[in-house]
Amino acid sequence: MKWSVLNFAAAGALNKHVGDFEMECHGTGIPAIETKDDMQRVNEFCKENNCLLILKPHPVQDMSVVSEIGLSNFFLISDDLLREKGVQLYQLLGRCDAMITDYSSVYYDYLLTDKPIGLTIGDIAEYTAKRGFVYRDPTEILKGEVIRDTDDLLTFLQHVKDGKDETKADRMVVKNKIHTITDGSSAKRVGDWLIEQLQKTK
């Protein structure tokens, strides 16, 4: 079976399993992957395990190395490509088997899927000093499998493949704090409310 992971701020994987990365990146431009050899290692894992790693970079992020190497199981997407295909980012996100991100707000949205989340937050001390967080201790809210390097990334992908999700219980606690309604019908409620308001103006 194919599976995928969507990686925000730089990359992701699609089932082929999906994950999402979002952070400042150095070397390859992909969080937790420092060298081209590491990229090849991850690509080989994905090939062997029928996984697609979907990369969603920031608009100003240089991801040219991905195209240069020609990795078979890395798929780079952009806002322009999504518009061309008539696909919303969150439609894709919902189909992914996992997500990799850093401090992006997409983390809170993805909690609703109850799917695995990998966190590239190795620079959390530096980020706290430079930009800071709303929460005094962001690790109380950010729950997921921490990815610091390529070995951690491969471990996370293996866990997704095997259906192993050790941080699910912690994420559910956060989800229930952040989201008061989780029945998947929010869009319908908004639509019903708008119709009700329009009818009142007639």
Query: Over all CA atoms, what is the radius of gyration?
Result: 18 Å
| Apparent shape | globular
Record field, number of beta strands: 7
Q: Helix content range of the residues, please?
A: 40-55%
CATH class: Alpha Beta
Strand count, sense and barrel status of the largest sheet are: 7 strands, mixed
CATH architecture: 3-Layer(aba) Sandwich
DSSP helical segment count: 9
| Count of all domains | 1
Mean pLDDT: 82
Residue fraction in strands:
5-15%
The low-pLDDT segments are: 9-26
* Structure class: alpha/beta
The helix/strand series, from N terminus to C terminus, equals: EEHEHEHHEHEHEHHH
| CATH fold node name | Rossmann fold
First-last Cα distance: 53 Å
In short:
The protein is α/β, with parallel strands linked by helices. It has helices at residues 36-48, 64-69, 79-85, 89-95, 106-110, 124-130, 150-162, 168-178, 186-200, and strands spanning 3-9, 13-15, 51-57, 74-76, 98-101, 117-119, 145-146.
Give me some keywords for this one.
202 residues; alpha/beta; Rossmann fold; seven-stranded mixed β-sheet; 9 helices; 42% helix; 14% strand
Describe the structure.
The protein is an alpha/beta fold and 202 residues long. It has a single domain (3-200), classed as 3-Layer(aba) Sandwich (Rossmann fold), CATH 3.40.50. The chain is built from nine helices and seven strands; from the N terminus they run ββαβαβααβαβαβααα. The chain has helices spanning 36-48, 64-69, 79-85, 89-95, 106-110, 124-130, 150-162, 168-178, 186-200; strands spanning 3-9, 13-15, 51-57, 74-76, 98-101, 117-119, 145-146. Strands 1, 2, 3, 4, 5, 6 and 7 form a seven-stranded mixed beta sheet that branches. β3 (51-57), α2 (64-69) and β4 form a beta-alpha-beta unit. α1 (36-48) packs parallel to α7 (150-162). The chain is globular, with a radius of gyration of 18 Å. 38% of the residues are buried.
